[in-house]
Structures are given as structure tokens and as C-alpha cells.
């Protein structure tokens, strides 16, 4: 439960917010669909390999592996993802197109 709580308070909403803003309007539905499929595949991978990782590294070390990955993702999100508040989707599309 702690993992789900921390995920939903930190990185979970970032993924969905980012997906709604990075795709141009004319391909947004398809792009979000493909990205969502990719996230489900990654969720399957985590669920599939989690017991294997516990067997290899033990429960505590597996937790720390996921914790380090989470911290890296938070740092990347903080430094790489641009601030989009106060801007319309059209303005964001123009700025992403220019960069």
C-alpha cells in the first residue's frame, strides 16, 4: 500500500499529465493509446520480474532497486519536463514543435 500511495502522490499523475500534453492534437488519441499500451506492458514486466528479483536479490534489496529507480525518475522529471501551467494546449504544441 505504501508503494501505491507514494506512486500516486509523486510520479503516477505526472505520466498521465505528460501524455495529455506532449502529443499534437491531431494524433493525441492514437499517441495516448500507444503510450498507455506501453505503460501496461511495462507494468506487466514489473509484475512478472518482481518475484524473480526477490529471489535473486532478496526483498530489501529489490525494494531499494525500485526506490533508486523512483528517485532517478523524480530527478529526471524535475529537470527535464518543462513547466506547462498557465499555457494552453495550443501554446504547448507550438513550443514543442519549435524545440
Keywords:
elongated, mainly alpha
Q: What do these coordinates show?
A:
The protein is mostly helical. 82% of the residues lie in helices and 0% in strands. The protein has 5 helices and no strands. Helix 3 packs antiparallel against helix 4 (59-80). The chain starts with a helix and ends with a helix.
In brief:
With about 100 residues, this protein is mostly helical. Helix content is about 80%, strand content about 0%.
The major pleated sheet works out as: none
Approximately what portion of the residues adopt beta-strand conformation?
under 5%
Number of helices: 5
Helix content percent band = over 70%
Q: Tell me, what's the shape?
A: elongated
**Tally of extended strands?**
0
End-to-end CA span: 39 Å
Low-pLDDT residue intervals, each spanning 5 or more residues: none
The run of helices and strands is HHHHH
Mean pLDDT: 87
Q: In angstroms, what is the radius of gyration?
A: 16 Å
Structural class call reads: mainly alpha
Helix and strand topology:
Elements: H1 2-9, H2 12-22, H3 28-57, H4 59-80, H5 89-98
Helix pairs in contact: 3-4
